[in-house]
Fold this protein.
Amino acid sequence: MPLHARDDRDGRRQLHLNAFLMDAGHHEASWRLPTAPPRAAFDLQHWIELARLAESAKFDSLFLADGPALGGTGEFRPPGQLEPLTLLTALSQATSRIGLIATVSSTYNEPYNLARRLASVDHVSGGRAGWNIVTSAGTAEAANFGLDTRPSHADRYARADEFLQVAKALWDSWEAEAVVADKAAGRYADPARLHRLDHRGRHFAVAGPLNVERPPQGYPLLVQAGSSEDGKDFAARHAEAIFTAHRTYERAADFYRDIKARVRAAGRNPDGVIVLPGIVPYIGATEAEARALAEELDELRVPAYGLRQLAAVFETEPDDLRLDEPLPDPILARPKLEGAQSRADLFIELAVREKLTVRQLISRIGGGRGHFELVGTPDQIADAITAWFEGGAADGFNIMAPSLPSGLAAFVEQVLPILRDKGLFREEYEGTTLREHYGLPVPANQFHRATEDTA
Ligand SMILES: Cc1cc2nc3c(=O)[nH]c(=O)nc-3n(C[C@H](O)[C@H](O)[C@H](O)COP(=O)(O)O)c2cc1C
């Protein structure tokens, strides 16, 4: 199978689409829409409906974000959700083909337990699991794990690097060929194919082997979502798919070229790493109708919420930000941050480029936290997607509907047919696993080679 290049029958490169699901929608005020289910986050039927909608549209995958802490105070937006691997397991039984990706923190988990949880999701889903590896940029998480302060940006990525090395070795430690199940001889497995790691590193000491058979995909699909220097270097070593946020084609194309070059420099095939920027589509039969939808949501925002979110990213207090003034100089001076570096950069660039006040800035990021917001007709949305895809800025997209389920349904019914007419998106699933949807091979087992050589 050629790496990644998802081609149609005529060898035409095709889009990868991931449905980024978030309770009532990505717009921070979506839960206030008259039609919105305000308690969607804990309603399994709501999630099953969304998963089945995305699968019916032949999306490569769906994605659940996460952070091991309450998201904000809960006053102005639903702050919690179901634990994502638990929810993915339930969704795996309500679907049969769509890939199932969830965020799990590498800072607030241990490799052995997480490796077996992800391996188990891959087994129960028939090879459809994906892991979005995040280092958890917030301060709230640290307080839930006995830490007075959040580990530094560099330390979080260093830990994540070792975490991945250990997790991959654990998934490889139980070779698929280990089980012989010889009832006559009473021999279940070949111990020579169950490998101890005896890993001792700066962050972890893990004996192994894992107590779960090698996942059907070898490893769950490895996704990453940090765009800082550390983030990009980590992605170049480990990521198979990259989630990223950019407001302009130019920024997205720069990132695309940069990350592919880093992957090549890390000795990997750039075609084996799929870049998926996020887009937030506001769709209307006319541009005016689409704008009206965006304005309806914008009017439902509570500025105090946006102000708090912005202050958190800039690691400052909401009181330090004046709504009707530009961002203060200390922030424009871009101090080194220990949290979400690339997101802070994106917000500053947007505010400076468009000369925005704080009030205008929080309105501009209220719909998708800085991702590319598209307001227009289905043709205009499809054209913008085509331009980024064919212009070397993306291998596909994270579809972030501002409201759910209505926004995703509109994209599926109105935009996908246009992309299919252009031959840019699949009509049917060819494969059954997440890796097959993304055109990625099952990784070789680092121990298997050794066992063969000694056999
Ligand atoms: C599409 C997308 C999804 C993300 N999902 C999560 C998430 O579920 N949990 C989380 O803590 N961070 C999430 N992030 C944030 C990243 O993990 C990271 O903190 C942020 O991109 C800043 O990374 P940097 O410091 O390397 O620039 C997401 C980012 C993107 C672009």
Summary: The longest helix spans residues 153-173. The CA atoms of residues 32 and 337 lie 33 Å apart. Confidence is low (pLDDT under 50) at residues 1-5. DSSP finds 16 helices and 13 strands in the chain.
